[in-house]
Amino acid sequence: MLVHRHSGAMLQLAERLMGNRAEAEDAVQDAFVSAWRGLPEYRGEAGFATWLHRIVTNRCLTLLRPRRPATDLDAVAEPPAPDHRSSPARAAESHAAARDLARAMDALSAEQKVCWVLREIEGRSYEEIAQTVGIRLEAARARVFRARRVLTEAMAAWR
C-alpha cells in the first residue's frame, strides 16, 4: 500500500535528480527496500512521506556523487520532431536552452543539485530540505543560494 501511494512522487523526485528514468527507477526501488527494512526504526518524528523523501534523496546522492557525465550532450540523439504548431526556430531555441540548462545542472555539486531540485521543482520549504537531506537549515539555504547563483550565471545569455 505504501509503495502504491508514494511511488509516483518518489519516482518523479528521483528522475529529476538522476536525469535518467532507468537509474531513477533503480534508486526508488532500492529506497523502498531500505524503507521496508527500516520500518521498525521509523519513529514518526517526521511524516512518512518526508522520511521516504530522505531515503530516496540519500540513495540518489549516493549514486550521483561519484558519477560524471558519461556522454557529451552533443552526442545524444536528437529529440523527436516538435509539434507542428511550433516554428523550427522556436524548437531550436527551446532545445538549445534545455541543453544549456542540463550543462549548468551538471556543474552543480550533487548536494547543490538535490537542494535546488527540492526547493525549485518540488516546492519544498528550507526546513523540509534540511530534514530530507539531513543538514542544518542554514546549510540548506546556502546550497540553494549557491545553486541559483551558478544556474543564473550559466543561463545569463537566455535572459
Layout of SSEs?
Layout: H1 2-18, H2 21-38, H3 48-64, H4 88-107, H5 110-121, H6 126-133, H7 137-154
Helix pairs in contact: 1-2, 1-3, 2-3, 3-6, 5-6, 5-7, 6-7
Task: Name the features.
159 residues; mainly alpha; 7 helices; globular
Strand content: under 5%
Overall strand count: 0
Helix % is 55-70%
Order of helices and strands: HHHHHHH
The biggest sheet amounts to: none
Low-confidence stretches: none
Radius of gyration over all CA atoms, rounded? 17 Å
Total count of helical runs of at least 4 residues: 7
The average pLDDT value, as a whole number, equals 83
Shape: globular
Distance between the termini: 45 Å
Q: What structural category do the secondary elements indicate?
A: mainly alpha
Describe it:
The protein is mainly α and 159 residues long. Helix 1 crosses helix 2, helix 1 runs parallel beside helix 3 and helix 5 crosses helix 7. The longest helix is centred in the middle third of the chain and has 20 residues.
Short description:
It contains 7 helices and no strands. The protein has 159 residues and is an all-alpha fold. Helix 1 packs across helix 2 (21-38), helix 5 packs across helix 7 and helix 6 packs across helix 7 (137-154).
